[in-house]
Amino acid sequence: MIYIGLTGWGDHDSLYEGTRAADKLSTYAGYFPIVELDSSFYAVQPKRSMEKWAHETPDSFSFIVKAYQGMTGHQTGFAPFDDKESMFAAYIESLQPLGSKLAMVLCQFPPWFDCRKENVQWVRYVKEKLAGYPVALEFRHQSWFSGAMRERTIAFMEQEDFIHSICDEPQAGVGSIPTVLHPTNELKTLVRLHGRNTYGWNDTKDGKWREVRYLYRYNKEELEEWRKHVLTLHTQSKDIYVIFNNNSGGDAADNARQLIDMLGITYEGLAPRQLDLF
Description:
The chain is globular, with a radius of gyration of 18 Å. Strands 1-2-3-4-5-6-7-8 form an 8-stranded parallel β-barrel. It is α/β, with parallel strands linked by helices. The chain has a single domain (2-263), classed as Alpha-Beta Barrel (TIM Barrel), CATH 3.20.20. It has helices at residues 24-28, 39-42, 47-55, 84-95, 117-129, 149-159, 198-201, 209-212, 220-234, 252-263, and strands spanning 2-7, 34-37, 62-66, 102-108, 135-138, 163-168, 188-193, 239-244.
């Protein structure tokens, strides 16, 4: 199956005319069968929140849950936890309410997390702590896919049974990676479409990177390119999860719906949509 969705559900204004904030997830679930939960990156989510989100979505709905930033080296130390053991324990506990709705945990490592021995050891440690859960792996430092390291990285992900998070993003120096169309798990493959805004990718001044990094709208030719890629990947991996993350300008929802139409997909089991009387 090919599942298409977005990063988060709060910012996609084209879906929510007249919708209360409290109803956005259930409305979102009327359009898409999956969502990437990124709030879990900033803080390990309370179980009551996970329970609420699971309750608000149909039985067939799935969550891709982003790993907490302390797990992926985006921060120094493990605050607000005492140590790494308690951090992982709290994160795993937070996943429990999702049950079968958990599609995978996404471990996205930062642009400075380069390919060296101690970082490989940390990746193995993360996989060990998340044993029993499907784990997607996404690098941001180009060294993982440079030269001979490309094949070694792919082989490592296959041996460790990681789901490959295949990216479409600007080629903007060492802090970006190429699109490597190679599934590493026969059951699941993740595709994340970040847009191709080369200038915005590295523009971090004034702390406004969120406003520019993912400011991009895929055109018809680019979506056709990805339609073909997705179909090819689907011959090598049972389920393909496609997440549009190009939402700095609110383009993700429209692009995702375009790709669904181009692939001729009709999802069953979505949440019922609210219909206007007039």
